[in-house]
Specification:
about 375 residues, Aminopeptidase, Alpha-Beta Plaits, eight-stranded mixed β-sheet, four-stranded antiparallel β-sheet, 9 helices, about 25% strand
């Protein structure tokens, strides 16, 4: 597991370009003589157990893509690819699921399983762009699957611990693109122009102030802009500005209300500034919703393995998003937080250029996943 994780960390590939990563994973399972196939367009891997007779088919999912961030660590396994790194732990997720599946394969081969277990491994591309899960579902990754499990590393928790939560686990995330069309002109005479930069600034300020004010304080909503594009010269008012951001919510009704409210506020900015605002939403990832009974199973398994003191019931969902939710719209399942920090001080957060994990977490996650699969496959009396 450690060798695989370090290989992937040193050779990351961004979303939609995971060809060599997929080939490497494929070859590992092919060497074990397991039924394995590539995902759409050579990205992603789907692997099956030899045993196919169990009443339930249980899937384990990992994501394999990296982020466009420059790796600033000095470790021997730091990224060798400029401006691309595994800053979200997908290399660790892949190694963890790989370890769990290898354990299940070895137990089956040795005749050591207590009953038949039928499993499927799903190594999906493009989680960061919210496209990979849907692509794998389209490739029939969920065909005849009865339940699915996954992990996400958590650098705020110590390795050897996990966090669990039934129900809503992460936020939905919708992409937002706003095109502000004005009339350009000389920066010395703004009264002769219709300034899209001023309108864009007004829009950002308005949304940041009035979206929260229109939402119940107990309903989480996060609106953030991450990109602003407009203009090429310091002394020229441009014709157009484009803003890109995200809208994150935990409740479906709040999601719809927030999107409608943003459109209303944009209409008001149009009237005040004289610009034209085109607001487009791309429906993205829904909320991860953990099945209650399966969460209880994971909790029981982890408690037996680690001890109750190392299991934390998470008090509230994360406002991050995860396209694992796409699978959970079709079959029940669970994602849990896998503690990944070492014992020495504060560890870098997700999506940072110095992100790393304490590799002790890999075996912890693999044990929990493998035993959960076996326990869920237990024949009903």
């Amino acid at each position: 597991m450690v060798a695989l994780r370090r290989h992937l960390h040193a050779h990351p590939e961004p979303s939609g370009e995971e060809l060599q990563t997929s080939l490497h994973i494929y070859q590992l399972f092919d060497e074990l003589r397991l039924p394995v196939r590539m995902g759409p367009e050579g990205c992603g891997v789907i692997v099956e157990s030899r045993e196919q007779s169990a009443p339930q088919r249980i899937a384990l999912r990992a994501d394999i893509d990296a982020l466009r961030i420059e790796d600033q660590k000095k470790t021997p396994y730091r990224s060798t690819v400029p401006e691309v790194m595994h800053a979200c732990g997908h290399d660790a997720h892949t190694a963890t699921v790989f370890g769990a599946l290898c354990a299940l394969e070895r137990l089956e081969r040795d005749g050591a399983l207590p009953w038949p277990v039928t499993w499927r491994g799903i190594f999906q591309p493009a989680e960061e762009t919210s496209a990979g899960a849907r692509a794998m579902v389209g490739a029939k990754a969920l065909e005849r699957v009865d339940a699915i499990f996954s992990v996400h590393v958590d650098p705020t928790r110590q390795a050897g611990t996990i966090g669990v939560r039934a129900g809503v686990f992460t936020a939905s995330c919708d992409a937002m693109r706003v095109t502000v069309q004005g009339r350009g002109g000389h920066a010395a005479r703004p009264h002769e122009s219709t300034d899209p930069i001023a309108a864009a600034a007004e829009l950002i300020s308005t949304l940041y102030q009035f979206v929260p004010r229109a939402t119940d304080s107990q309903d989480a909503v996060v609106v953030s802009f991450g990109q602003i594009h407009g203009g090429q010269n310091a002394n020229v008012i441009p014709e157009q500005v484009v803003l890109e951001g995200t809208v994150r919510t935990l409740d479906r009704a709040v999601r719809e209300k927030t999107i409608a409210h943003i459109r209303t506020l944009a209409d008001g900015i149009e009237q005040v500034t004289g610009t034209k605002l085109d607001v487009c939403f791309e429906r993205g990832t829904p909320s991860v919703y953990n099945d209650e009974s399966l969460t209880a199973l994971v909790t029981d398994v982890a408690t037996e393995l680690l001890g109750a003191e190392r299991i934390t019931a998470l008090p509230r969902p994360s406002m991050g998003s995860e396209d694992f939710a796409v699978y959970l719209e079709r079959v029940p399942g669970v994602m849990f937080r896998l503690g990944a920090a070492g014992d020495d001080g504060t560890w870098s957060g997700l999506h940072t250029p110095t992100f790393d994990v304490d590799e002790r977490c890999l075996a912890v996650g693999a044990k929990i996943l493998a035993r959960t699969v076996v326990e869920l496959a237990k024949p009903q009396a």
